[in-house]
């Protein structure tokens, strides 16, 4: 009995949303239908014909943007290193090789995946190209991840073991690392896929029956081995390396902070001793001058503080006629020599230049504060001075370290932690969901199946790591940023000079 059209449409809708491997039979009175694979070309064609245009446009825009940014960003890294000699260092060769792998991920893996998604799952390039696409996908993604692992090892030796770095990470070692990154993934991509070792016998028979469907169905052994080589082992190495790097960075920051504090203490002690010596010399010189000329000071007339305040309040002060100069003087540690500035009297001395009111503080040493006004002028010069032997000036000597040193150290430590967190966070967030699904779907079987839209999102989130890598590993470095700007300026100048767009 033929299957009613409504039931057939419902069966197609359920199979598209749940990504099931087969469809069920028809009505109860009818005999059971044989199981059909989900990847039926006619069914997928009908689903494509009925898909919403808006969803297709959104998918095409997002996929095209990821591919374009990935290609341009990685090409910019390669061209910048090639044009700037100061970037020709062995460590940067890893970044160039990583950029090459990420660019090939965009060209050889993302493009074919986008074509399948935008055509409703229909494969248009034949069986051989299907195997090559699956091989490219596994190969270049694994190459990119292995490069990230090698970069973490390189930075570990550069930061944690800087003395061993030139002896350990030599050009020969870098060459071996790059060779390993490019050759090892062949064992889990081209070799097993082209020979048919990666999948099951049922899937091989399904491929012969449906040549317009390119599905990557693997067995449990291949899923475990390939995921371990491609993700789990490199991820473990990266976590250990970057954790050790973060520990060493914090250790170095603490050592620098302690060294700065020690330098501050030594500088402060030396400055204090030097000031004491200078002040003692000044006091001795002033005492000698007072002993030689003891009667030079004019007689003083003691007035009350209220009289002085009244006199001062009666004098108009304006910004144009009032100029005050306050000299801060430090007190000696010996209070007996300096006296007490609180128990003072107001004195008024007559000199040749006119009336000079002053405030002097009484004490054991005879020292005090004096406020002078030059009588012949209308401008005021207020200078706070100490009589010997306590007169001294406070010299501010800059210390080696300031309060900003701990703050700067904290900012540097926060920046290092943020960079390491960004590197590990981007890698784990992009690839961990995909490989978790990849292992669980092959170990658990049909009970762990996910909707087709979720599987597509997991693939493209993993691809997106190749788009982020040039920005994380290159653009955050000042030398690469400058090289990027110069390269873009040079490209724009060449386009303006040559309409054909040839780069020179």
UniProtKB/TrEMBL annotation:
For the region Disordered, give the residue spans: 272-303, 346-410
**Pfam family of this protein, just one?**
7tm_1
PROSITE patterns with a match to the protein in the record: G_PROTEIN_RECEP_F1_1, G_PROTEIN_RECEP_F1_2
- Which residue stretches does the UniProt record annotate as biased composition, category Low complexity? 272-295
Swiss-Prot/TrEMBL GO biological process terms: adenylate cyclase-activating adrenergic receptor signaling pathway; positive regulation of MAPK cascade
Q: Which SMART domains match?
A: 7TM_GPCR_Srsx
UniProt keyword annotation of Cell membrane present: yes
Its membrane topology: Multi-pass membrane protein
Q: Does the keyword Signal apply?
A: yes
- Bias-annotated ranges (Gly residues): 350-369
Q: Where in the cell is it found?
A: Cell membrane
Q: Which residues cross the membrane?
A: 49-79, 91-112, 132-153, 173-195, 215-243, 420-441, 453-476
Which UniProt keyword terms apply here?
Cell membrane, G-protein coupled receptor, Membrane, Receptor, Signal, Transducer, Transmembrane, Transmembrane helix
What name is this protein filed under? G-protein coupled receptors family 1 profile domain-containing protein
Q: Which organism is it from?
A: Scylla paramamosain (Mud crab)
